[in-house]
Amino acid sequence: MQIQFLKAIITKDIALVNQEERIFEGIATVEMIDKQGEITVRDALLKNFPTWVLRGAPIMDTHSNRHVGKGLNYAPIEVIDPKTKKKYYGIKITAQIFKHTKLDDQIWEYIKSG
Predict the structure, then answer these.
(1) What b/e sequence results for 63-101 when a residue is b if at least 16 CB atoms lie within 10 Å of its CB, and e otherwise?
(2) Helix and strand element counts for the chain (H, E)
(3) What is the pLDDT of residues 72-100, one digit of tens each?
(4) What is the pTM of this model?
């Protein structure tokens, strides 16, 4: 049940901010049980975001070493499950996908298509 809600908020909360520059906003993480049965604690992760930004805020393709973009901004958020009214804590990011390779183009198309 929670995993289905997580999938729904990730796909529904991606917003294209500037298509020409390939800038979008989306949820980077939500504090809830994932498929592996683990929970990422938002406040612990937020402590690392300044270092992420100082190191160029890399956006990687699907947990790989393929660098396809960069983070531009981040903010703590609260997401409410519409069915249970339970509040989840998360992090929303604004990011940009590069225009240098076919993989960059493919990732941008995935983002645009939801």
Answers:
(1) eeeebbbebbebeeeebebeeeeeebbbbbbbbbbbeee
(2) 4, 5
(3) 999 999 988 888 888 889 999 999 999 99
(4) 0.81
